[in-house]
Amino acid sequence: MASSSSPSSSSSSSCLLCTALILVLSSLVAPHVAAAPLPFHPRDVLPLLPRQVSWPILDSLNSPDDLLPTFVGAASARNSTVKWKGACFYENSAWMEFHNKSGGEFGGGTLHIKVNKAHSWTCMDLYVFATPYRVTWDYYFLSRDHTLEIKQWEGKAEYEYVKNKGVSIFLMQAGMIGTLQALWDVFPLFTNTGWGENSNIEFLKKHMGASFEPRPQPWVTNISVDDIHSGDFLAISKIRGRWGGFETLEKWVSGAYAGHTAVCLKDSEGKLWVGESGHENEQGEDVIAILPWDEWWDFELHKDDSNPHIALLPLHPDVRAKFNETAAWEYALSMAGKPYGYHNMIFSWIDTKDGNYPPPLDAHLVASVMTVWNKIQPDYAANMWNEALNKRLGTEV
Ligand SMILES: *[C@@H]1O[C@H](CO)[C@@H](O)[C@H](O)[C@H]1NC(C)=O
Ligand SMILES: *[C@@H]1O[C@H](CO)[C@@H](O)[C@H](O)[C@H]1NC(C)=O
Ligand SMILES: *[C@@H]1O[C@H](CO)[C@@H](O)[C@H](O)[C@H]1NC(C)=O
Ligand SMILES: *[C@@H]1O[C@H](CO)[C@@H](O)[C@H](O)[C@H]1NC(C)=O
């Protein structure tokens, strides 16, 4: 049965715990008794257990690889039905029906999912459905047809994406419901929507105690280029879209309230420039760039869809007096065009065997997000892992 209600309630979990322990015990003795097979596998009831109980059991049942979400396919138009074998249901298929029930410009869609041939009466499969604009999940207990309703696409971009690439479907081990619930805090951060933006704000409030108070208008200061000098610092906080999501996690793991920084430089003719990483070049790669101030500022004011909050932090006059503009220019020019540096980013988080992430984030969760994102935004996620791993393994090109 498709349901999104909470699968565990405290009143029933203690009893389920007994059941599970009995099952685990009986599965241990079962091989010696030539009895009928168990009606269901202990793994099947794990999702119903509290996480601290289910995880140790799970650890003893699965290899870590099994715990990551598995990409099973992308569902698009009816004539290209995707089929796969699940952990619980052995015959599954899905296709997308586009409709216009909302009467909006791009309409919406119904994802039809057919699950069949369960290996036991009580098992279930847990699914994550994702586009770059939304993530949702559901789990299935019963062999039958299920549907997932998407009232309205976020806009042309999502509509085109789903038409061309489909809705990505990931299968998760049923026991991973704990991870999935934790993912729930993290996934929407990356979606380029108002939902994503609010999720970022909520996340920072909840996990960092950050407060967000709307400023009085005007939201943009009239800044004069004459008042900005070489070495002045731009502290930037983006809260929407893919950069917003990454910045939120960066802020959280690093404890900073800015997720991105840039530096101002003036040339010998007094023209102002901004040195920044993460600038998208014509090939769609994120590189380090030195941009004319007017171009940079215009982009931030009018085109940056990550809703950036920018603070200008001028150098203290004493420090400015010591700032070597020539050396700064030499360094900036030597870095221009180089990759953004995902390796630094990811390894600034991951530097111990465990204890890298504040709860509820754990290595598993990060790997799960990356697995999902890898499929949906392959260029971006591949950058991050490939650069990071190449750096560690000394196999950079
Ligand atoms: C599926 O149908 C659409 C429209 O009916 C058509 O444009 C497309 O080529 C078909 N795709 C396949 C794989 O048959
Ligand atoms: C959905 O219906 C509305 C209103 O009738 C129309 O303007 C829009 O173009 C339709 N969209 C699609 C994708 O058919
Ligand atoms: C900013 O400058 C423009 C043009 O010089 C002016 O019209 C506007 O009132 C100024 N805004 C503020 C808040 O000073
Ligand atoms: C500033 O940097 C340049 C280039 O690295 C160097 O040649 C020069 O001596 C430096 N100036 C001072 C005052 O340190």
From TrEMBL:
Keywords: Signal. This is Uncharacterized protein. Residues 1-35 form the signal peptide. Gene3D superfamilies: endopeptidase domain like (from Nostoc punctiforme). The keyword Signal applies.
